[in-house]
Design a protein that fits this description.
Distance between the termini: 31 Å
CATH topology of the largest domain: D-amino Acid Aminotransferase, Chain A, domain 1
Number of strands: 17
CATH superfamily of the largest domain: ATP-grasp fold, B domain
Order of helices and strands: HEEHHHHEEEEEEEEHEEHHEEHEEHE
């Protein structure tokens, strides 16, 4: 989606991806290879003026050795902070950004005295992986013996997100606060509603926390800032993604400038675009159905595409499996309640199955 926006502005795009004919290859030239392959990174560097990334699982030592670091945004230093979730929490805590109580642990036994609690793996967690909710001692069976930390189990009122864009001159803008609902099975985003119905004081505070966090990083780029509003009325930073984010996909149809165009504008040192939301939106993730894998089959596509204001985005991934993110749907309507009703219909009727049962 970033490559599409770059092409619209006349830029050539090269993507480094290990999967032949990856989704981005439809609109970009592809180098087939791992993001941690020194030879392929060298080729990418040689042929690029600007380098950005859309996943955090990158070996920064290899990256520094094979690309010009000044070409990379968001900055490699930010990537290193974000990659280690415990380091990330420490960083923001020291900067005065409100975060939940957290503590590093070295053994699973240390978790017992803090139950109920959430265990979070320090490295490699993505799309909900590496997050283990432990409500009682029976749940300790789910705990993982990996470098991790624990975090207080928040009594959540709402899970929120704010997309923040910041350029190299320090200019910063926020998109509207959105409410997120998560898939309890996979602990990844199920759908979101924008704008939030929160009281104005919480909206203002959420935006301020999000901006302060990105300012603290001296971040250049687009940042997905995930937040909690708890039952006590606290706005707490959960974590930050240094890239266009699932919680900002609605901006394509709903806002004057999408998060992806903002990312390209920042890369090209162009002015930031407007973040004004023109119409309410609901975004639903298209996840692979349980019990299926293989070549994806999109059931119910015709039925949902008959509805006004429904925009289907299929990413073009060649294989599906349970809970794999295969695309998203954004529903817009001047009446937010109608948008929500349409989204419920989409969720019930559009399914991603595979041609193999498992």
């Amino acid at each position: 989606m970033t490559a599409q926006e770059a092409r619209k502005l006349g830029f050539n795009v090269i993507v480094l991806d290990p999967v032949k004919d990856c989704p981005a290859s439809m609109v970009a030239n592809q180098i087939i290879g791992s993001v941690n392959d020194p030879e392929k990174l060298h080729i990418l560097n040689k042929n690029s003026n600007i380098i950005t990334y859309e996943i955090e699982q990158i070996d920064t030592h290899i990256l520094k050795q094979n690309v010009d670091v000044e070409k990379v945004f968001p900055q490699i230093e930010i990537l290193e902070i974000i990659q280690d979730k415990f380091r990330q929490k420490n960083f923001f805590n020291k900067k005065g950004i409100p975060v939940p109580f957290f503590k590093e642990i070295n053994t699973i036994d240390e978790i017992k005295e803090h139950i109920p609690v959430v265990q979070k793996v320090r490295f490699g967690g993505y799309d909900g992986r590496g997050v283990i909710v432990i409500k009682d001692e029976k749940d300790l069976e789910k705990a993982v013996d990996k470098p991790s930390y624990i975090e207080e189990l928040i009594d959540i009122e709402k899970e929120l997100a704010v997309m923040v864009v910041r350029d190299s001159h320090g200019n910063i803008k926020t998109y509207p606060v959105v409410e997120m609902v998560f898939n309890p099975e996979g602990n990844l985003l199920d759908y979101l509603i924008s704008p939030s119905d929160l009281e104005e004081k919480y909206i203002k505070e959420a935006k301020e926390v999000a901006k302060s966090a990105v300012d603290a990083l001296d971040g250049v780029g687009v940042f997905g800032v995930e937040l909690f509003l708890d039952k006590k009325g606290r706005i707490l930073l959960n974590e930050i993604a240094p890239r266009p984010h699932n919680s900002g996909h609605y901006t394509i149809e709903s806002c004057e400038t999408s998060q992806f165009e903002q990312h390209v504008r920042i890369a090209a040192n162009l002015p930031l675009g407007s973040t004004y939301q023109m119409i309410p939106a609901v975004t639903i993730n298209l996840l692979g159905e349980s019990g299926y894998k293989g070549n994806p089959v999109y059931e119910g596509l015709e039925n949902v595409m008959k509805i006004d204001g429904v925009y289907v985005h299929i990413y073009g991934k060649k294989n599906t499996f349970p809970l794999r993110k295969m695309g998203h749907v954004t529903v817009i309507d001047k009446d937010k309640n109608k948008a929500i009703e349409k989204a419920k219909f989409v969720k019930q009727n559009l399914k991603v199955k595979g041609d193999e049962k498992i």
